[in-house]
From TrEMBL:
Enzyme class, UniProt record, top EC level: hydrolase
Modified residues (N6-(pyridoxal phosphate)lysine): K241
Organism of derivation: Actinoalloteichus caeruleus DSM 43889
Pfam families given in the database record: KYNU_C
Protein name: Kynureninase
Length: 422
């Protein structure tokens, strides 16, 4: 680290760049997950803080994909649906994701995109709610949600005749009543990184007689989720963010075992049929999570995700959470120490219990700021209008990366307000 800046000592610690660098080095040395970085193919010239959009490439993936393409497809051909286990891969890979989100086996299938699965489970959840109690025609949706969830909720409401009620997660408890059928929420807000209290909100919805559908895109693989323990009804999650399945990797769908056989999903294709190879003209839904499948599984990307999951063997999710919180907290402390006062507004809560695994902040000209950082080898995201977003994937991000990014961002913010380094 090159320069020394005036020290603003908030907690009695050395907050010069040199002091922060010493803290980062000590934290990386003590990190029990540090060895996992070797299982990723990372460009050492880059600081990659975008694993919440596209996870890094696990070293297990290229050789496995080569084998799938050359042997299973090339030599095995059609026989691989049976002999290489392709047909059951959606359930098998689902069972590998299950422990990462606190689910017992048999409740997750992998396939299609998160968007498709949001639609599938929103319609299925609304139908199940109304089937149980015809008054339950309202769909409560996080009004700040990632747009695709909002668009698809609207479409699901049009299709089912449900009434869409946008609602901020902080107001959910007051909005629940005996008309609420389904609640669609995000575990971690894609923009601010705020973590919502999944057990408490699920219990509130359940207590009011409503079903829950959680979007885990920004939490699966970043923190413990505890779906079964919280008695969540339905959930979806992304395969290409913290699970590192690769661009366009399929998403996953969770349906609690209590609910599965009551689900009437809208995309009832042949792969969700009780006897797909019977080729019956009439539809009969399969038992279990299999009824959430639709068509032929996307084997190449599904098996890429499968291989990417190898990295989780023996990983303790509590340790992942501890590291994620320490990384995000350290990044914010570095910004507090190095960036000009008032040059940014933190959007992510500082309280550990309310933060996912990213840090988002608002500043002037955020798009240009993130473009400058990218030219310097620090990759994060810009989200409109003026949000800079930095994702901290705990399996491969180091404390030194957090400092390098905070230092580069602070330098950029300092230049924009016309202050040089001291
Ligand atoms: C919270 C959330 N839900 C859904 C999606 C949509 O995922 P996909 O484009 O893979 O359908 C994303 C990201 O793209 C997301 O962040
Ligand atoms: N899915 C993406 C894509 O295909 C291109 C660029 C970004 C994405 C994303 O995943 C966006 C992401 N869900 C977000 O939280 O903003």
């Amino acid at each position: 680290m090159r320069h020394v800046v005036p020290q603003r000592v908030a907690d009695g610690r050395d907050t010069s760049v040199a002091g922060l660098a010493a803290r980062a080095a000590a934290a990386d040395t003590a990190d029990p997950l540090a060895h996992l970085r070797d299982q990723f193919d990372l460009d050492e010239e880059l600081v990659y803080l975008d694993g919440n959009s596209l996870g890094a490439l696990p070293t297990s993936v290229p050789s496995r994909l080569r084998e799938v393409v050359e042997q299973e497809w090339g030599r095995g051909l059609i026989r691989s649906w049976r002999d290489a286990g392709w047909w059951d891969a959606p359930e098998r890979v689902g069972d590998r994701i299950a422990p990462l989100v606190g689910a017992a086996p048999g409740q997750i299938v992998v396939g299609d995109s998160t968007s498709i699965n949001v639609f599938r489970l929103t319609v299925a959840g609304l139908r199940a709610a109304v089937g149980r109690d015809p008054r339950r025609t309202e769909l409560l949706v996080d009004g700040t949600t990632f747009p695709t969830d909002g668009y698809l909720a609207e479409s699901a409401a049009r299709l089912t005749g449900a009434t869409l009620v946008p609602c901020h997660p902080s107001e959910l408890v007051d909005r629940l009543d005996d008309r609420t059928g389904l609640v669609l929420l995000n575990h971690v807000d894609y923009r601010t990184g705020e973590l919502w209290d999944l057990p408490a909100l699920t219990a509130a919805a359940r207590g009011a007689g409503a079903l829950t559908l959680w979007d885990l895109s920004h939490s699966a693989g970043a923190l413990p989720v505890g779906l079964d323990r919280a008695e969540v009804d339905l959930a979806v999650g992304c395969g290409y963010k913290y699970l590192n399945g690769g661009p366009g990797a399929p998403a996953f769908c969770y349906a609690s075992s209590d609910l599965q056989d009551r689900l009437d999903q809208p995309l009832a294709g042949w792969c969700s049929h009780a006897d797909p190879f019977g080729m019956e003209p009439e539809y009969r839904a399969a038992k279990g999570a299999t009824r959430l499948r639709t068509g032929t599984p996307e084997i190449l990307s599904l098996l890429s995700l499968d291989a990417a999951l190898d990295v989780w063997a023996d990983v303790d999710l509590a340790e992942v959470r501890r590291k994620s919180l320490a990384l995000t907290d350290f990044f914010v402390s570095c910004l507090d120490a190095l960036a000009p006062p008032g040059s940014f507004r933190l959007l992510t809560p500082r309280e550990d219990g309310r933060r996912g695994s990213q840090v988002a902040l608002e500043c002037d000209d955020a798009r240009a700021v993130m473009a400058t950082l990218e030219r310097q080898g620090v990759i994060g995201d810009h989200r409109p209008p003026n949000v800079c977003r930095f994702g901290f994937a705990p399996l491969y991000t180091r404390f030194v990366d957090a400092l390098t990014a905070a230092d580069a961002l602070s330098t950029c913010l300092r230049a924009r307000v016309g202050i040089g380094r001291a």
